[in-house]
Specification:
- The complex is a heterodimer of chains A (376) and B (314).
- Chain A has 376 residues and is of the alpha+beta class.
- Chain A is built from 8 helices and 20 strands.
- Chain A has 2 domains: 240 residues, 3-Layer(aba) Sandwich (Rossmann fold); 127 residues, Beta Barrel (OB fold (Dihydrolipoamide Acetyltransferase, E2P)), CATH 2.40.50.
- Chain A has a 6-stranded mixed beta sheet, sandwiched between helices. A 5-stranded antiparallel beta sheet of chain A has the order 13-12-11-14-20.
- Chain B has 314 residues and is an all-alpha fold.
- Chain B is built from 15 helices and 2 strands.
- Chain B has a two-stranded antiparallel ribbon with strand order 1-2.
- The longest helix of chain B is centred in the first third of the chain and has 34 residues.
- Classes of the chains: A alpha+beta (376), B mainly alpha (314).
- Chains A and B meet through strand 6 and helix 2 of A and helix 10 and helix 11 of B.
Chain lengths: 376, 314
Amino acid sequence: MTGMTKSDGKQKAAVAVSVQNVNMTFDGFHAVDSASFDLDQGRFLTILGPSGSGKTTLLRMIAGFQKPSSGEIFINGAPVSAAPPHKRSVGMVFQKLALFPHMTAAENVAFPLKMRRFDATTIPERVQRYLDLVQLGSYADRRIHQLSGGQQQRVAIARALVFEPDLLLLDEPLAALDRKLREEMQLEFRRIQRELGVTTINVTHDQREALVVSDEVVVMDKGRIQQMASPTATYRTPANAFVAGFIGVTNFLNGTVKSTAGQEVIFAAGEREFIGHWSAAAGAPTVSANVVGALRAEQVRMATSADELGQCRTVLSAAVTDAIFEGERTAYEVTVGMDGNIIRVFDHDPAAHKQFGIGEAVFIGWNPQDVMIYPN
Amino acid sequence: MRSYRTAYPFRWRVMDTLEMLARVLWPNRFSGAVPYLMLAPAVLLVLLLVIGMAQIADSSLHVLDRSTFLPSADFTLANYQTALRQPLYWMIIWRSLLGAAVVTLLSLIFAFPYAYLMVRTPSALLRKFLLIALFLPFFIGQVVRAYGWLIILGNQGVMNEMLGWVGIEPQRLLFNYPAVLFGLVQYMLPFAVLMLAPAITAIPEEIESAASSLGANWWRTFTHVILPMSKPGLVGAGLVVLTLSLTDFAMPAVLGGGSQDFIANAIYDQFFRTSDQGMGAALTLFLVGIGSLVVGVIFTVFGAGTLAMGRGKK
């Protein structure tokens, strides 16, 4: 199978999955609205979005459980919309795993080989190889209910990969796990995916997971693809206000444009004027247009005196209304002056910095390049 | 602030009054006896059954004195000897067992798609229709339904009339073995569907999706996943249909017309036609023995856990 070679990104990789103008309507409701993207061989893509954004519907169409209302999906160049799931070379790990309770771990993993008529003499060896891959080599004869949650995850992964599919789909299989196990399994998915080089599409509403595991992130909302970019680009240069708000903790300043100079925008929000910058993804705003400035909580500096914020071009006086110690950081909510705007601030080095108490008067500051301007 | 009426509904006050009354009638210090008290009716009923069985066992040990029409005074195994020696009774036992097995098999085969469709259909209307169609025969009763078949399958019945339209001579559709089995299957179908439906409901639809994405077409999904996972329902439904058919009276009596007796009909004849209580009692014990044996074998082969009883077993 050609999909099993490792892609190191430099050589020109073939397109493994191509979604072209796919629509899905249920009784007039647009669950997926003209979705298009190409995914290269061996890449790990995460479709990220809130519930009801259409991400699961899109995944189910790629798996073959639903037929697009219009548009076409290509896997390795061949259109697949007409093919039922069992005729596609797609492995899937389900939300509730959907392991077969009447079979052992090894029988679960052997199932797709038997159904896809692999040479029977090679099945035991292959099953053992994939159980070893997910570190369950010695659990082959356990029944499913004799395995822990994490072990069941691993059986589900082995079962979805053992027939060497062209494409692996993950339908939020980690959603039900506790945080520690979830983060462990995220890295495990990443390790296995890199080891086999299998093209993978993951669906999640967990922004952290999307950033941690993926080569590429597709953000969906209301059935539409909002942005497709690398995790860093998605975080640093969100294409629109929705993406900026959905990933990370973001403050929004609503206002109208006063003037523009190059990339910089001066806009009025309440009684104040702020400076922000627009990016190519969002496009240049016009004077007196309604805009929203997005400011990440970790870009805001906080100090007891304005002098300490000398490097910031925007400095405001504020009062701390809430302080939540979260271990590696402290999350503050501060209320700005008269307009009562609440700004969220992360202090990532609470040990070295001063801890601020509730009610304390502080100054907060940031720079124009930290405020991303989007049309409102 | 919510008003008193909504914060403390009327239903709760009724419950309070009842609980107060209960405390007066049954003070708290007797509360240890409550579980036993709740068990008492069931224990009493089982006890009555045991007494009845003992009585039947006793009368099976007396032969009927043909001159006085009274049971003999001394104990004897003569009734069992007669029963075992008469080929007629072997015939009846064989007919009942074979009939029960065939009826069970056919009922499960017919009931499974029905139950599956009822559970899986996305249309609430279709589900309601299937449920009503299932329960409707329950309101009619077995004997009335058997007479209904007499009218439909009789020599001048609807069925033969329809055969006449396509030029087929009137057939004798009644008073034979297939007619009895046909009536029994029709009678057992709702029981089988009702026992199968919860077992099919317990299979997540995601499991079927998983099977198909792993490469199984619908037939292999059915044989490798759905059927094995429905085993508890199949065994439960099978047991109910098997025991009900094995001990059935009305269908063989009405649709068999006396020529297709099952064990229950033979027992009836001994008790109420020839008035040979001893013989009837011996046959009754045979039936109880055969039924218990069959159920016992099924339990040993499939395990009692198949009825989803006992805790912890998945």
